[in-house]
Design a protein that fits this description.
This protein is an alpha/beta fold and 331 residues long. It has a domain of 203 residues: TIM Barrel (Alpha-Beta Barrel). The chain has 13 helices and 10 strands. The strands form 2 sheets. The protein has an 8-stranded parallel beta barrel, surrounded by 5 helices. A two-stranded antiparallel sheet has the order 9-10.
Length: 331
């Protein structure tokens, strides 16, 4: 593991060596992956909703992660629905987060405000993920502890504004007073240095990590990630204002065809976008099905290797970037 190169508000808040966060990847961010991120000097979050209808599986995964990290702190990721009546399903997961004394929470999606008091009462440090600065400012008023702002390049759900990080990250750094991470298009040590130079305190990695050895998905999936170029993704579900950036596969093209035809009956989409189809693709390697989150930064995933080796590569690249800046110094 590389020695600490940067000390930021995020490294201090989470007690980590590197300002690198690995966000919750639905279905994929399990104990093995999250423990690898923590043991490599970053922070990771087990995705609670990877265990739909079975919160006790989250408890088992938390305990496994605690063993793999030898007691080092890690986090859980919880996505709230924009439909408030659906969020009561999250209460059993929050009970487990409280019971297991999870120190860090990544929250995202809909308004977390109704659930923040119980998470804070449980002692959680909360980093809330948003797709635009306006939502970051709202989250600050809710007294979360840190904020992640993602740009339109992000795989998964980048929001509807789709503003790139060359603009949005700088706007966020100017506007947000809390510790700030930026995600979307972040994949290399050069991105890390750039994000810190723009005023952020960390980067959030997603697509870059899909080829990590500790990701459990089928080998054919990882080989497809390695073969992907920056254009092998598309944004679907725009007709519902639920923008979703995914691998360009048969299912995504079928969804886009329905949108092009102006079809707004969600039942026409359900089988294509269901979580069951996505998990099935990860399990079987049948990459024609499912909405498989992927942003253009996946192009920087060039080989399958452990999380620690990826982090080492990022830090080495960051050192090279800093050295280049030093050589360009005219003084």
């Amino acid at each position: 593991m590389r020695p600490q190169l940067f000390r930021t508000r995020i490294t201090e808040l989470f007690g980590i060596r590197h300002p690198i966060l690995c966000g919750g990847l639905i279905w994929l961010a399990d104990a093995s992956y999250v423990a690898a991120a923590v043991n490599a000097g970053g922070m990771g979050f087990i995705t609670a909703l990877s265990f739909p209808g079975n919160p006790e599986r989250l408890r088992a995964e938390v305990r496994k992660c605690r063993t793999l990290t030898e007691g080092k702190a890690f986090g859980v990721s919880l996505a709230f629905s924009a439909r408030p009546n659906v969020n009561d399903r999250l209460l059993p997961y929050i009970d487990i987060i409280r019971d297991e004394k999870i120190p860090f929470m990544e929250t995202s999606g809909g308004n977390p405000a109704p659930f923040l008091p119980m998470l804070k009462e449980a002692g959680c440090i909360i980093i809330h993920k948003v797709p635009a600065v306006r939502y970051a400012l709202s989250a600050e008023k809710m007294r979360v502890h840190a904020i992640t702002v993602i740009g339109g390049e992000a795989g998964g759900h980048p929001g509807t504004y789709m503003l790139g990080n060359m603009v949005q990250a700088l706007l966020a750094a100017d506007a947000v007073k809390l510790p700030l991470a930026v995600g979307g298009g972040m994949a290399t040590g050069r991105h890390l240095v750039t994000a810190l130079a723009m005023g952020a305190d960390a980067i959030l990695l997603g697509s870059r990590m899909l080829s990590a050895s500790e990701i459990w998905a089928h080998p054919r999936y990882k080989e497809r990630i390695l073969a992907a170029n920056e254009f092998d993704n598309r944004v679907v579900m725009k007709i519902f204002r639920r923008h979703h950036r995914v691998l360009d596969n048969e299912a995504a093209r079928a969804v886009e065809d329905l949108e092009t035809r102006g079809i707004t009956d969600f039942e026409s989409y359900r089988s294509l976008v269901s979580g069951r189809a996505t998990r099935g693709a990860y399990e079987t390697g049948d990459l024609s099905q499912g909405m498989l989150d992927l942003g253009p930064a996946g192009v920087f995933a060039r080989e399958i290797k452990p999380v620690e080796a990826i982090f080492d590569e990022l830090i080495d690249e960051a050192i090279s970037a800093l050295e280049r800046l030093e050589r360009l110094n005219a003084q």
